[in-house]
Amino acid sequence: MNARVLDRTLIYGSAIFLAIWVLIPFYLIAISAFTPPAKIFDYPKSFIPTGFSTDTMRFFVDAAGVIPSVINSLLVAVFTIVFGLVLGTPAGYALARFRFRGREAFQVIVLATKMFPIAILSIPLAVTFLQLGLYDNLVSVALVHTAMALPFIILVTGGVFVAVSHELEEAAQTLGCTRWGAFLRVALPLALPGLAAAAIFTFVISWNEVFAATILTLRTRTLPAQVLAGLGTSPLAFKFAGGLFMALPAVAFIFLIRKYLMNLWGSR
Amino acid sequence: MAGITIEGVSKIFGKTPALKGISLDIHDGEFMVLLGPSGCGKTTLLRCVAGLEQVSGGHVTIGERDVTDLAPRDRNVAMVFQSYAVFPHMTVGSNIGFGLRMKRRPKPEIEKRVHEGAELLGLVPFLDRYPAQLSGGQRQRVAVARALVMDAPVLLMDEPLSNLDALLRLQARADLKRLHKEVKRTTIYVTHDQVEAMSMGDRIAVMREGSIEQLGAPMEIYDNPATQFVGGFIGSPPMNFLRGAIRDGSFAGDGFTVPLSRARAEGQEMLLGVRAEHILIAGEGIAAKVLVVEPLGSHALVTVLVGRTPVKVQAPIDVAVKADDPVRLRLDESRLRWMDAASGSALSN
């Protein structure tokens, strides 16, 4: 009993610590973003918002190129999710279901690609994309993001399909489904929470990615690339507002999909 | 309705042969049990009939139709899986009706048959529940109902009771047997539990290492095991075996002699097989020493040492022996079974 109390204290203590670790900077950015630009430099900094105002946010949103870059970022993220899941899910499924020659090697290679820093990949990538004529557009950025997210998607979906019993698909086959029909009607719906998780992380990877987005685009910038481009010259208010603005969609997205993650099919 | 003919079916996984050319005729409406220890190939054989496994050689015929190369959905078989494989994202009702929906039957017909199936297995109050809200026994019944409403002439069951607790298993065993009498589907039932096999099967195919060791009615297999393996696998406790040879008209082994009234050929090294209920603790006979007495309510199971071989004896519950007592045993000579010591195969009596 005492050990259990200790366990719980440790778990909750760590959870609270981690939550504070993440939330305090987030909170500070948030109140700064809603403080009038003139008061941002107040010191000592107050923990309570002083003089709520949307001026700072409006200043950011109205800045040239911000709105289009938000749209670009969303489109790139959506493309990345679609490309990533379409390519990664079958690979994950194959890893989960089939014992083929080179299966372990494939898993290691998939993981190994994550060891390359994107900076090393960027030059050959940029050259290749230029040769293909795929530059300064959203698809090229999405393709790079897909490449970055794929190892993750493959391994996560692999784990997801391992958790969906093969017997369920076989049962569906004896009940009149084709192999493909059994996948669509049984394995896929059951894997959906896991696929949603993969989609969330893919979204976050794409939404936050700045390096590839910067070198591959000039006019069609995503939000991080746009913010980065003006970072050195923009006022502090712009940075606070930008920080909050970039964090919000990711937070909202996770909140929306969280329910789906946690309690699908009751107590499974 | 349909019988099943399995003709020289073999299956090789990589380099390991799982089935070594199995032939088996299952009559229309018969309840056939495939019995064997794990790894004997019984589930693989069932999956070959279901079409979930491709055979490496041989043919499977269901009701005159060669189904060897057909997909599971085209074979007209219904299957109950060991894990039940009840779809967790569908209600009990949708689970039972799944097969009918896949066959695009009209909606009123589906509803009617789902209800009939649920009624047959006592699932009507649970039709709107999800499997996560059911007990193991209820889930097992959902799996059976789902297979039954398909109206497939062949029903395949892969250890459907092995995940139930002991008491429930007893109940479910009787229920399944009654159900089979009612619906009369040709059934192949895979189990490693010899009690299930004995109590349910019209015939039992005892399998070992990818081959059928013996095929026959339950009592036939129980009384006349074709090999030492079958005798040792069927029955609780399993058959006792004593190793020895005939000398001077008696069966003599390491530290014991069994007098025989009927002459047998001398010299050959043999196994004498005898079941626990055919040994009597008596005032005279073979000398033995009691190792342990286990009272089991209706009778007592006494383990004695004959020479160096432990032998199980079924004795009356009030048997007056205890550990380390010297006892004498009498064997029912008409019930003795003889096997070749080297091959384990039965010799004629």
Descriptors:
heterodimer, A: 268 residues, mainly alpha, MetI-like fold, 75% helix, 0% strand, B: 349 residues, OB fold (Dihydrolipoamide Acetyltransferase, E2P), 2 domains, 6-stranded mixed sheet, 6-stranded antiparallel sheet
What does this molecule look like?
The complex is a heterodimer of chains A (268) and B (349). Chain A is an all-alpha fold. Chain A has a domain of 164 residues: MetI-like (MetI-like fold). Chain A has eleven helices and no strands. The longest helix of chain A is centred in the first third of the chain and has 32 residues. Chain A is globular and about 70 Å long. The C terminus of chain A is likely disordered. The model of chain B has no long low-confidence stretch (mean pLDDT 93). Chain B has two domains: 224 residues, P-loop containing nucleotide triphosphate hydrolases (Rossmann fold), CATH 3.40.50.300; 108 residues, OB fold (Dihydrolipoamide Acetyltransferase, E2P). Helices cover 24% and strands 36% of the residues of chain B. With 349 residues, chain B is α+β, with helices and mostly antiparallel strands. Chain B is elongated and about 75 Å long. In chain B, the strands form four sheets. A six-stranded mixed beta sheet of chain B has the order 6-7-8-3-9-10, sandwiched between helices. In chain B, strands 13-12-11-14-20-21 form a six-stranded antiparallel beta sheet. In chain B, helix 2 crosses helix 3 and helix 2 runs parallel beside helix 4. Classes of the chains: A mainly alpha (268), B alpha+beta (349). Chains A and B meet through helix 7 and helix 8 of A and strand 6 and helix 2 of B.
